Amino acid sequence: MSAFPAGYHPLEQGLIRRVLEDSSSTGLQLYLVGGYIRDALLGKYGPGKQPLDFDFAVCGGAAIALARTLSDKLSGHFVLLDQALDTARVVLDSGEMLDFAGCVGGSIETDVTRRDFTLNALVWNPKEPEQILDLIGGMADLKELKIRAIAEKNFVDDPLRMLRAFRFSTTLDGTIEPLTRSMIRQNAALLTQSAPERINYELFAILNSKNATGVLREMGELAILEEIFPELIETRRVTPNAYHHLGLWDHSLEAVAQAEMHLTDLPTWVHEDLSVELSAGITRLQAMKLACLLHDIGKPGTWQITAEGRHSFYGHDRLGAEMCEVVAERQRWSRPVSRFIVNLIRWHLRPGQLFHQGRPTDRAVLRFYRTISADTPALMVLAFGDFGATRGPGLEGPKRDALEKDLHELLAGFSVFVKGQSAMQRLIDGNDIMQLLGIHPGPILGEILEAVAEAQGLKEIRNREQAEQFVCEYYRNKGDS
Questions:
Q1: Distance CA 403, CA 168 (A)
Q2: What is the rounded distance in angstroms from the CA atom of residue 138 to the CA atom of residue 117?
Q3: Helical (H) or strand (E) element with 479
Q4: Under 8 Å between Cβ of 433 and 471
Q5: Regarding beta strands 97-102 and 87-91, do their DSSP bridges make them parallel or antiparallel, or are they unpaired?
């Protein structure tokens, strides 16, 4: 009797049948391995979630040559992954992917010992279609959702596998077993040998979890987090103070946790905004969580303690943004992801600063919305995370209650602002202003347009005549200053 659930036996998958048929004349022995078997047995496929990735071990010949042949027959796109390891990929227009890798050591028995984790080393042999080949205890670990490394050497051969352990613990809701944890701790420094792009893929997949904080904490315990972001190392030395009940390392992790907690209470439009992709596979939500983790990396470099024992971190927002630009370049983030995270770090103090001197003016709030613009929802979630992780005696009682209310009102007001902007009719444009003032394109033109938009938003100007008067007066005052 098949161990696969109904509808997900490999022979019920048209693409798998096609691969087997088209390779039958080659004399090669193909085995289905890895993720498809694991996820099918866990019941992760069904309506709305169909399998897209299929991994084949190829024994008896060249996997790359087979992938080229199948790419032509399936009208797919051939991608060479590693010539030395005899691995290649076929990508179909449907989004499905087929990976082919030559059997290490020439046999499937040897090949599975070189894989990452036992639950990824289950094998299906088309010649014994109702059986699952389990050579190293993968079925038992799969039932217990236990992430167990097959061999420490496999981490040394491909250090990224250490990061994959954490990704699987989130996607499978599994646990990394103690010996594997020990292996990761011992070999954490090797992770920097992995390409940044591969690290990014695993890291942002972890951040996609609803509870990424627990995994990030575990990554910190096993020294993996600092290998990716050495900028975090110095946060361990910054101690609690009047406003922060936690040291900076724990505060940074708690900010992620608090942001995740606040998400459950936020309106639908915020969730829709955070679900927007900045680049392929990376949403605003995932990037916002990373900004939460890194938002205070500038504090160790600006930390001062006065004779009275008061802690200060003046300019840590600017320094943190500059440091994150270096991180972005090192990690090879896309430009949209880099800009987004750097800006959130640069601006993370602004929501609270609006209320330092009491209720802000309408003009100040409008300038906040216009400056932060589309990043406002994400910045506010970061602000909730930062605020929730800041519970020292200096920020408790009525003061805390008032600021929390203010932050929620600031977020709600952005929705009103966006609707108002959409409905607002432009009274005057750049060409009108250049003709009116006799000027050419330049910084002053953008400044005037921004000032007009602000005045219109505050209902200080309501028609074309008032707009022209405002422009002339604004330009005259600039000349007088």
A1: 39
A2: 8
A3: helix 464-480
A4: yes
A5: antiparallel
Cα–Cα distance for residue pair 6/97, rounded to 1 Å: 22
Alpha carbon distance 289, 213 (integer Å): 9
Catalogue all structural domains in the chain, each as residue range(s) with its CATH number: 1-143 (3.30.460.10), 145-228 (1.10.110.30), 246-423 (no CATH), 430-480 (no CATH)
Helices (H) and strands (E) in the chain, counts: 23, 12
Q: Which residues contact 173 (CB under 8 A, 6 or more apart)?
A: 145
CA–CA separation, 165 vs 147, rounded Å? 7
By the 8 A CB rule, do 202 and 158 touch? no
Helices (H), 188-229: 196-207, 212-221, 224-228
Using CA atoms of 309, 315, 319, 320 in order, give the dihedral in degrees to the nearest 10: 70
Which SS3 state, helix, strand or coil, does residue 46 take?
A: strand
442: helix, strand or coil? coil
Give the global pTM. 0.87
Instruction: Tell me the per-residue pLDDT of 414-473, one tens digit each, with 9 for 90 and over.
Output: 998 888 777 677 878 888 888 888 888 888 888 788 887 888 777 777 888 887 888 888
The model's pLDDT over 129-156, given as tens digits with 9 standing for 90+, comes to: 999 999 999 999 999 999 999 999 999 9
Distance CA(199)–CA(159), nearest Å, equals 10
SS3 category, 450:
helix
Pair of tokens at residue 265: 């209470």
Q: Residue 457's closest CA among 358, 353, 371, 352?
A: 371
